[in-house]
Structure formats: structure tokens, C-alpha cells
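Following the same procedure, the fold was encoded as C-alpha cells, giving this record:
***
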Amino acid sequence: MNYAFIDDEMIPLGPALVEVIQTVSAKVLEQEGVEMDTSMYVTITDNEEIHAMNLEHRNVDAPTDVLSFPMLSYETPGKIETEEGDFEDGRLVLGDIVISDERARQQAEEYGHSVEREYGFLVAHSMLHLLGYDHEEEIERAVMREKEEKALTSLGLTR
């Protein structure tokens, strides 16, 4: 069973977006064949806070839409190899996701789709990062995009 601990104390999301986070994260795990109990921490913040985090962790002096902090290392994306310390309360801890609510809403408007769709995309994208995927090379980017769209389409979160 997947569980996303959602910290939306700073910016309350409401039940619809909380459900999007839960269902999209579960769908990505299902698609990737992850059968063990997992957890991840999702923090909802603003552009100012994510800007500071982006500068601190990536040395990028600008706000971004989402940051992912995987807790596991992968030789092959999606192929989980665990150690005893990777678990908390019987769940495999995948890592942390930080989403800028401001940026997500701006992008939803810019791309002409719903805020739910944008949150879904950001969560799917981050979940793949937590599972070892990256998009530094064009082929990696294409693999991630295909997996993101598959998850979102299966949940009806289309453009």
C-alpha cells in the first residue's frame, strides 16, 4: 500500500488535490510494479520557499515547479534494491516531493488545463525521480514523458 504524507499546512490544498496526489503516486507505483508498502512525503509550498530550496540543493537561483529528493539509489531505474534502513514503520521510504502551489497554478493556466492535471503531472514526474528515473538525456526524457502520460491518461487527467 502506498501512502503519501502531505504537508499542506502552509497552503491548504483541499480534498480534490489531496486525492490527485494519492491516486497518481499509487498509479505510478502500480505501473512500475512496486508491490511493497511505500511512503513519501509531499510538501506544498510557495515560489519563495521553493526558490530558496532550489538554490540550496541545486544551485539554481530561481523558483521551480517541483523538487524531488529520492532516498534510494538505483542501478536501474524502477528496480528497487532495499536495505534495512530504507524502511520506516514497515514502509519503504521513497523520498520527498516539494511542489510550488503558485507555480503549479500558473502552469495550469499557461498550458490551458486543470490544476488537478498539473498537480498530477508534477506528482507523476516526481514519483519517477523517486524511483530512479532522470531526464538528462533525450531518450531518458522520452521514457519519463511516456510513463507520466500513461499514468495521467489512465486516471482521466488529460489536457
Summary: The CA atoms of residues 31 and 151 lie 8 Å apart.
